Predict the 3D structure of the following.
Amino acid sequence: MLIRRERADDATAIAAVHRSAFAPRYAHRVDVGESPPALGDNRGADPPEVDLIARLRSDEGWIPTLSMVAIEHDGVIGHLCLTRAAVGPFPVLALGPLGVLADHQRSGVGSALMHAALGAADALDEPLIGVLGSPEFYPRFGFVPAARVGIAPDEPAWITHFQVRALSAYDAQIVGEFRYTEPFYEL
């Protein structure tokens, strides 16, 4: 497996990765006696992460060097991006989405992407990364509940799943409200 920067010709494969990774979360199960979704029902539509990536690419918070893919046998099997965010007046990074093809999950692809992204962000002297995600997955990469370091998400409902990871350039003065770039709020 190789981790490298996203290229323009990876966009379709990256959409397929996020479709594969996230579609099961949004699938609607039809129970016995229940009607199938009506024509025009968006339950069969792409998961929002697919559209989020497309919107992020055209946003001022997009950082091309921090959008990474995992490649195996010349095919994209995973994707992760870091985009510009802020804690009060301080520029920081936001992680997400992170997706791995369903048939490659739990094989180390997500971990490899995480390690590559953390190393790249640290090498660029970024101070901190925030993520709204699994409290079981992200702590293994050094993420802690954001409240522990004086950072709060701007959406109070996110408090239980919002975490941060300090990097080498972290300064304890970085406290306050975390704000994602605009496409995250358009989901």
Observations:
- Residues 18 and 103 are 12 Å apart (CA to CA).
